[in-house]
Predict the structure.
Amino acid sequence: MTDRQRKLLNAIVEQYAEVAAPVGSITLAKLFGVSSATIRSDMSQLEEAGYIMQPHTSAGRVPTDKGYRSYVNQLTETDTPPMLDRGTKAIDARVATHGDHTDRAIRSAVDSLVELTHNLGLATIGDQLYMSGMANLFAQPEFVDSSRNVQRVAQLLDNLEPWLREAAPNEPLNVYIGAENPVGKSSSASLIISRFRSPYSDRSYIGVLGPTRQDYARVMRLVRHTGSMLEEVL
């Protein structure tokens, strides 16, 4: 992949997350200051390599799971300590008020992530899986008109708590994109979770479940910060 193709893939991921519609060559040509023919050539190579796909004839392109993984890996490789923006400050303020009550602090953190990311929020509280924001998840375009995707997401959620207990992901931040998920592999969903230590367990988890089409940089930053905040407060 050339440098321009990598930047092109990044642009497709980010624009698709914003507009929820396939991204066309004319839009990208304006962004990169090159001809539409040049962009179409690069898009064709990215498609052949499996990073993007054309959902409909004469439509623009959307990222594949492989494309999202490449994008997320870049974010991880160039990761820097998160800045305290309005979102992270809001999480800090809400969680700090419940510092003496572990379950309330975790629930408050989940509810904050739901509000900030518009995804479904989840966390392990002892042996239970707390979830909030189901309506957010199923209001996304990927799920509104697809009962099959909804069923696969439901299957993922039904099996998530025992899977977390068995697999116990080791990384402080874990990102499972589409088919990388333990179940519901065709659900077009991404699971972004942070591991943290709590009075309940050294392997507690908090995070979000949303469509593969999302603002990974922002959501990953918020989830990572929330896990760190909970570990510090609790």
